[in-house]
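Q: Hi! First time doing this. I have a protein sequence and I read that you can turn it into a structure. Is that right? Here it is:
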Amino acid sequence: MLDKLKTIEQRYQEVEARLADPATYGDPALAARLNKERAELAPLMEAYRDCEKARAELAEAESLLSDPELGEIAREEYAAAREALPALEDKLKILLLPRDPNDGKNVIVEIRAGVGGEEAALFAASLYRMYAMYAEARRWSVEVDSVSETELGGIKEICFTIQGDGAFSRLKFESGVHRVQRVPETESGGRVHTSTATVAVLPEMEEVDVKLDPADIEMQVFRSSGAGGQHINKTSSAVRLIHKPSGMVVECQQERSQFQNREKAMRILASRLYEQERERVEGAHAAQRRSQVGSGMRNERVRTYNFPQGRLTDHRVGLTLYKLDAVMNGDLDEILDALITADQAERLERETQ
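A: Yes, that's right. Below is the predicted 3D structure, encoded as structure tokens:
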């Protein structure tokens, strides 16, 4: 590990030296790439230097333990450094784990109403609002790509893109079946019903990231419309792409131009095909290893939202919170941090086996 850290430190110093050279900024693309690399390496270098500082303080304090004048102070400093060092070393090990190449990407989120009829559609709408409010709090942008609504304001299915630094790294564990327990607005008897919605989180891919043969794609155009045929567009700007080898269908109707809708639909198709291949590869290894956080597959129940008790439970990490109103208003960081920490611990355990 030390050799690896020394190599990374040397590279970090090279990047900083090149960024300090005014000539670098004559090439904006190079400057942008170096700035991005420095930003990615900076947390690791900070953790490495904190570890080295703690080790030096530990060694210095140890050398003074027998000093008649400084021994008492040295014992306090030795105890403090010895207590802090394991946490710093664990942080460093986590930062050294192989990085998910998609962590920096934008995300495409697809939510579909599941079991529960109209109540499931209303829950899907609540989930969309939750993610949109979380994105807004982080100053990320949200663009709806396609949506199918119900007369009562529910959502049968919605596909939207969240654009922001590290969006996929924060949201990638949201995939799966989300279950709600509450009294539906449509229920006059006050009985608690259980409904579900599925969430899929995909890294946004460009056409160049996934091999797409134009001959495999059939494009259809149609007029977009809202719930119940409202907001009818008089031009055929909505686009439907059919990927013939897989049978996958993608629709995009939110933009005003056919070209913009096709461009978005192609990105969504590329992302779905990428995810399909990822799930196929991971599925081949599922019998050998099961991640603590879970596979993120769409058929896996990941979370329960119990409104009568104001309780949220994430079943993968055993986390229960009694602040459901805040969560539904986009306060997701405590949940996401727990999922990310569990994934890091599981990967770290595999690395050390």
